[in-house]
């Protein structure tokens, strides 16, 4: 067993959710005209004898970001990321779009040198803002807070 050391250089997204992400789901409910719940297999209500009907009930269900991102088809824009060096209550998301350069480095056995002298940080942030626009809007919608695009170095080991 070994440890993988990884360094990432580039843009990432942080957000401090003001609410838990939920989606509206539907479930079938069998009830009678008097509002009693009736077993799925029964035709009549066992409490009042009224005929049972099926109705669709909508409810809010808490979901995780991984599920939400995939449901919305946004897995080619962002991915949920975990980091213990970030402020409490803050969530981090990685970028899935290409920056057109090497962003991640396995630093276990080799020394990686990347010349970033001419790198335009503001342009990379703008690229994320444009190409991940749907994902950013989605995060704002489900978190009730505005996501922030940052640019930096993330070093991790696992
Ligand atoms: Zn009833």
User: Structural class, from helix and strand content?
Assistant: alpha+beta
Q: What percent of the residues sit in helical stretches (DSSP H or I)? A: 10-25%
Estimated radius of gyration: 24 Å
The percent range for strand residues is 25-35%
Low-confidence stretches: none
Give the count of structural domains. 2
Number of helices: 3
Instruction: Report the mean per-residue pLDDT as an integer.
Output: 89
Element pattern in H and E: EEEHEEEHHE
Bound molecules: zinc ion
Overall shape: it is elongated
The largest sheet, given as strand count, sense and whether it forms a barrel, is:
5 strands, antiparallel
Q: What's the end-to-end separation, in Å?
A: 11 Å
Compute the number of strand runs: 7
Describe the overall structure.
It is built from three helices and seven strands, in the order βββαβββααβ. The protein has helices spanning 65-71, 121-131, 133-143, and strands at residues 5-15, 22-32, 52-62, 78-81, 91-95, 104-106, 148-157. It folds into two domains: 5-21 and 63-157, no CATH class; 25-60. The relative contact order is 0.31. Helices cover 18% and strands 35% of the residues. With 158 residues, the protein is α+β, with helices and mostly antiparallel strands. It binds zinc ion (ZN). Residues 32, 34, 36, 45, 47-48, 50 line the site of zinc ion.
């Amino acid at each position: 067993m070994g440890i993988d050391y990884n360094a990432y250089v580039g843009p990432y997204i942080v957000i401090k959710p003001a609410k838990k992400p939920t989606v509206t789901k539907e479930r079938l409910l069998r009830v009678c005209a008097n509002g009693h719940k009736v077993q799925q297999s029964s035709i009549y209500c066992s409490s009042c004898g009224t005929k049972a009907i099926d109705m669709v009930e909508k409810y809010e269900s808490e979901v995780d970001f991984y599920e939400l991102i995939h449901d919305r088809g946004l897995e080619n824009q962002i991915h949920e990321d975990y980091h213990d060096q970030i402020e409490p209550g803050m969530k981090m998301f990685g970028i899935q779009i290409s920056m057109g350069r090497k962003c991640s480095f396995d630093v276990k056995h080799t020394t990686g040198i990347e010349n970033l002298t001419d790198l335009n940080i503001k342009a990379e942030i703008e690229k994320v803002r444009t190409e991940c626009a749907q994902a950013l809007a989605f995060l704002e919608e489900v978190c009730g807070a505005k996501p922030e695009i940052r640019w930096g170095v993330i070093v991790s080991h696992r």
